[in-house]
Amino acid sequence: MKKALCVLMVLVILGSGVLFAAGQKESGLTKVGIVNLPPEESGYRQANVEAMNSVFSTANGYDAKQTNTGDNSEQIAAAKGYIRDGVDYLLISAANASGWDDTLKAAKAAGIKVILFDRAIDTDESNFQAALLSDMAYEGKKAVEWVLSLGLDPINLILIRGQMGSAAEIGRSAAVLDAAKAKKLNIVADGTGGDSWSLDEARKIVEAAIAAGKNFNVIYAENDGMAQGAVQALEAAGISHGQNGKVKIIGFDFNRFALRNVQAGYWDADMQCNPRQAAEISRWIKSGKLPSGIIYQEELLFTTSTITDADIENWGINADPGKGVITR
Length: 328
Prior knowledge:
The chain is of the alpha/beta class and about 325 residues long. The chain has two domains: about 25-135 and about 275-295, 3-Layer(aba) Sandwich (Rossmann fold), CATH 3.40.50; about 135-270, Response regulator (Rossmann fold), CATH 3.40.50. The chain has eleven helices and twelve strands. The chain has helices spanning about 1-25, 45-55, 70-85, 100-110, 135-150, 165-180, 200-210, 225-235, 255-265, 280-285, 310-315, and strands at about 30-35, 60-70, 90, 115-120, 130-135, 155-160, 185-190, 220, 250-255, 270, 295, 300-305. The strands form two sheets. The chain has a six-stranded parallel β-sheet with strand order 2-1-3-4-5-11, sandwiched between helices. A six-stranded mixed β-sheet has the order 7-6-8-9-10-12, sandwiched between helices. Helix 5 (about 135-150) packs parallel to helix 6 (about 165-180) and helix 7 (about 200-210) packs parallel to helix 8 (about 225-235). The protein starts with a helix and ends in a 13-residue tail after the last helix. The relative contact order is 0.13.
């Protein structure tokens, strides 16, 4: 009797599992696992996270979960969890560009399509299906071209980096380091806002440079929050900045407050990093035709002399998260 009951219970459990799996399949929802950075990192990341939540919703036909952490090992653990869950698509914006090979290969072996967004991963392109990326090296190149165009002689620059080892930091720093190596500019202070791209840490870098008597005329901050922290240090020390000031300021990301600062002449320039990858990736998925390899987004640079109200309305972060992207 007990044996018969056990067999019956096993059959019920197995049957329930089959019904559950069938129910998932019949729901018609596409399962998506999203590995992203935390919204607290920056205004850019907040907009990016919100876009992912808005686009990959049940109403839009998705069963999606998003993990937000700036720790690479935690990101990898989350990705492995999504692989075990049997998602259809795995979307990744990596905290660090290295260390992902085994995870990506496991996803590929499980038949899961991997799409990178925003940040590149240092891996063979065969380990992911497609990527819609911010071209960080291009951003750095455009920003440094602007710095060199200022006609300052000499150019004494404070470099404020983001999270060391991230694709954003590597790309945005590379052009500065190359220009310094070529004797086109001098890096008089070099620091980082840490893993959180901290405004406070950026302010401390500039405060230390001022206290040490460093002579500088450009601040190159690798996101808008850190640029704001740098400006706070200048203002506290009574050092002029912006259009008619001693120190030229450039930030990255196109936060609305930053673009308004550029327009007002408090800052001199801002380099775009577009957070709106979600809508484009969703179009790829729904079309059933994912591109192969890497696609880079078009990114702009605005200065005090070029920016308009329309630019701020069209491109300022926290605009419509469902808006598509221009690619190049």
